[in-house]
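Bumping with the actual sequence this time:
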Amino acid sequence: MKRSIPQLSVIHQFSGFIKASASGRRLTPSGKRISKGSVTNYGYVLRLLEEYETAHSVNLRIRLLHRASMRVLQQEKNYWARFFVQFSNFLYRDKGYYDNYVLGTFKILKTFFNYLQKEKGFITGNYHKSFRVPVQQAAPVVLTPEQLQYLITDKAFEESLNTYQRRAKDIFVFGCTVGLRVSDLMKLKK
């Protein structure tokens, strides 16, 4: 009699992963709670997985590999290699995301698989460790001093902008002047 291999729904398990992270049952290795920003990012990845399932008419599953044969192990390796390629293509082509976001998404998926293995005790294999995105360094865009001076002093240009555009220009110019990233700029307080 052929023994069936237990399977888990990726979406269901990922939802549990988010709940455990948000509630404080899952902690960082140093013992701190997972930040709200990380939990929010986990929610975005869950939404991407749901969109991927809908777009490809597939239900992602995880097989539990306790006492699995070599044939089953090879099937799982092929399954997750195919998923990596198809999900990468989905993120790049269909969603129009860039390397940094795709890299962050796969980093969260790796964290999820590590959670299943270490905290839930599921034997899922180490196929997630091959989720590697080649990172291409984006060339930074640098303004010349003349361009920056134009943004600061040109009154006609400033008057052509609406209120929101003026505010964005002011933040941009300030960021260029002090050399902070947008995320750091937005955290500044009076």
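The tokens above came from a reply further down the thread. The chain has a mean pLDDT of 89.
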